[in-house]
Design a protein that fits this description.
Blueprint lengths: L1 E7 L8 H4 L2 E8 L6 E10 L2 H7 L9 E2 L4 E8 L11 E4 L9 H4 L7 H8 L10 E3 L2 E5 L9 E5 L3 E4 L5 H4 L5 H13 L6 E5 L3 H13 L3 E6 L2 H10 L3 E4 L5 H8 L4 E6 L4 H9 L1 E9 L13 H6 L3 E4 L7 H13 L9 E5 L4 H9 L5 E4 L5
Parallel strand pairs: 4-8, 11-12, 11-14, 12-13, 14-15, 15-16, 17-18
Antiparallel strand pairs: 1-2, 1-4, 2-7, 3-5, 3-9, 3-18, 5-6, 6-10, 7-8
Amino acid sequence: MKMKAAILVECGAKQPFAESRPIRIEELELDPPQTGEVLVKIGGGGLCHSDLSIINGDRPRPLPMVLGHEGAGEIVEVGPGVRDVKPGDHVVFQFSASCGRCRRCLEGRPGICEQAARAKADGQLLGGGKRLHLNGQDVAHHSGVSCFAEYAVVDRGSVVVIDNDLPLHEAALFGCAVMTGVGAVVNTARILPGDSVAIVGLGGVGLNGLLGAKLAGAETIVAIDLNDEKLGLARQLGATHTVNAKDENCVAAVRDITNGGVDFAFELAGTVPAMRTAYAITRYGGTTVTAGLSPSVAEFSFNQSNLVAEEKTIRGSYMGSCVPVRDIPRFISLYRQGKLPVDRLISGRVGFEELNEGFDRLQAVATLRQVLVPHAA
């Protein structure tokens, strides 16, 4: 079938993207779903920092590529062998389909499936190959999803069925921002009621981390960012204290507020300076968790003696250590109960022609979550 999609044709394009136009809207040929795959009509796709990191060259990927890994839609066709979902089902994408057979999957950690990691690095689907084509040339998939399009063919394991009455532009956020932010707190760190927490970086993922900390019963929640408006929103969402990262006494201020540091510091900005801050405000015996994807060549260093003497822990968190088929419905249920008000993080909806400008806004840290709505009237 033919359909419209947003193709990234250049990594590291000159900014502003509104002028260099690294994202182009083209009519592509989309193959029908193969064995174990489904065709989805896209209802919403979130503009995420992970997409931006490919566009700006921080994390290069095979090109050309149809972007988009956080999204939701409606199944319109299923491939051979797919019997547990059907046309008409509403689904949220999850960007790491799992093989179920590698060592990581057998450990109950499908989010870091080894086979899926190889397929994503090559711009292919889990079953191998590409289903997107432009003028006879194969086009790469982004994280097995590519939802900045009217339709997507994905592995059956890349979708989680949800209730049909949840608006799809809201459901889209549960495919990345919610899983990554809330999951880092409740799955990776497993914080307990009464713990002290710091959230470093208040983008879509960071504010979801804050919501997760409040949900889990953290007694002290310190929100840290460079943007005063985001700090104000953090206070509305449950932060007990806020500190502007531009303050040269930022670390000292947090340590003073928390009597020596927090039990858990979450780096959710995807920058090395944010990671340094998070590590510096982690108390004796505390844990620094990072879920932000920094540039692929970035390195973080720490004093080994300090790590040992203070018995700190540093943990990575990919996709919030989630099991998507378990966690996405759980998080949606909490949202509908009013305990995870993620709709407050949606800055607005955009169309295809606004994507370059949308990523300019994201690069300038001037927005939270924008959602592409491909089939807007």
